[in-house]
Amino acid sequence: MNQTKIVIQNTALELFAVHGYNAVSIRDIGKKVGIKESTIYYYFENKQDILNQLLAQVEELIAAMKEAFTRKFSQIDDVLETEFVSAAVHYLNQFFLNDHVLKYIRMLSIEMQSNQKATELYRSLVFTMPVEHQTQVFEQMIAKRFFREDDAYQLAMEYQSIIYSIFQKHCGGYAPTSDDIEGANRELVLFMQRFYRQYSLT
Amino acid sequence: MNQTKIVIQNTALELFAVHGYNAVSIRDIGKKVGIKESTIYYYFENKQDILNQLLAQVEELIAAMKEAFTRKFSQIDDVLETEFVSAAVHYLNQFFLNDHVLKYIRMLSIEMQSNQKATELYRSLVFTMPVEHQTQVFEQMIAKRFFREDDAYQLAMEYQSIIYSIFQKHCGGYAPTSDDIEGANRELVLFMQRFYRQYSLT
DNA sequence: GTCTATAAATGGATAGAC
DNA sequence: GTCTATCCATTTATAGAC
């Protein structure tokens, strides 16, 4: 794909994530990129087209993560507390707090209030897709007697609830500082230890 | 307060909650109320003034809820599973899904992406304030041996995580349908029974 | 591919009639 | 209190030069 087009898309995402689609003008995007607004119309049909292609990118991201989950889904041999906790910390920092993903999440948080497609993508990105994967993980952990007998979906939803809520509590909204991120990580460690000790058999 | 002013405020809230402050024009608000935009300037200094007064209302709501919590905080005599579950269902439907509160939450979801004050209000409204109250409740339940020995704050945070996540998963974003609300309630009952059985001593 | 120039609509805000 | 009329900046989008 063309380099200029990618820069326009990323810049638009950055602005949409903070101000929302409707509040950002084509001129704003052009100014930040360093081109005239008429140039943007060379790459995109109109303003809506930029948003549509960004939403399509979110759909691709969801599909890619799904695929990555199944590909990396190796057999689980043993799960110690430290491994379990650091897996959750890694998930928070590499998914929710990943620069690009965070922008998608923030953009969707705004657009989902008026756009049904954005609502579906948001729910899929932060609930449906990860919970589906996590259900499989807990199923294996229960089958191998690392975790006590339980409903794997309920376990996964509980797990996701904690991570999502900690993310929103500390890093939801206005650009999270490094203090916010630290706070989120600290609280996550605490609750993941709690979770492990609750359900682990070791 | 003047009747017209209240109508303007409520209409502005309704539009801000869906499209966001920046995307709504004074003309849009006037048209929906059925008055000319110049009339709005009789009641408000400018557009920003409308938003500021709405944010002040959220602050008042948080204070009022805090006060209501301490006032209604009667001694807990006994807590059966059905009471515990229906208290959570009541909380979801009367707080998160209350018509007016839901609009505040949706407006803040948008504004918090660019407005630090809105971020603080959102976190206080959906996390800090309710978790503080719920911590007190669990403290009493543990002291009276209805719930097993545990950290009351952690218990409260876990409780709030589940309710908040179920709210966002089913009713976050685009105007929730009655099916969405039903789905949220169904899942909440399931997870509240699970929670009760996990921690109850009876 | 990127620019200038421009059209047509819409934005926030004010002055002054009633 | 609510309206009409108006100002001026900004918006999306297009036509056409380079």
Pick out the low-confidence regions of chain A: none
Number of strands of chain A: 0
Named CATH topology of chain A: Tetracycline Repressor, domain 2
What is the quaternary state of this protein? homodimer
- Can you tell me the overall shape of chain A? elongated
Q: Can you identify the CATH class of chain A?
A: Mainly Alpha
**Alpha carbon gyration radius of chain A:** 19 Å
Kindly estimate the percentage of residues of chain A that lie in beta strands according to DSSP: under 5%
Number of helices of chain A: 9
Query: How many domains is the backbone of chain A divided into?
Result: 1
Q: What is the string of helix and strand elements of chain A?
A: HHHHHHHHH
Query: What would you call the structural class of chain A?
Result: mainly alpha
Largest sheet of chain A: none
Helical amount of chain A: over 70%
Question: Mind telling me which CATH architecture of chain A this is?
Answer: Orthogonal Bundle
Largest Cβ-defined interface = A-B, 39 and 39 residues
End-to-end Cα distance of chain A: 51 Å
Average pLDDT for all residues of chain A: 96
